[in-house]
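New to this. Please check this protein:
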Amino acid sequence: MFASRAVSRLFVRNSSSVARSFTENSPASFPSVKDTMVKSNYHEYEHAHKSTNTWFWINLFVTIPGLAAVCYFAVPTELEHLNHLLEHPREFETLPYMRKRKTQFPWGDNSLFHHPNANPAPSE
């Protein structure tokens, strides 16, 4: 019983000193980045920060509106094209060099990348 009290007191004392040292070394008491870096390295750090900010604003005010404008003009045309393809599907053309297989695929006659709208199947 005595030993457990002594150990618990020791732990309490050490933990309070750890807590005290943690508050003394809190981030608020650390020196600033400018004071800790070499002067030439700090100028490189500032330059990198400024150029990163420049590219952020370029992306925000040039790239995103540009993509929106491209989508505004391209999407309706693309939707018309897709609707046209659905109205008039492609017909399969038998060519002598196509679909020559010695063994069948394990999953069937079509390739793994077969899509019925883009790759018409033969009507055998």
Summary: The first helix runs from residue 2 to 24. Residues 31 and 37 are 10 Å apart (CA to CA).
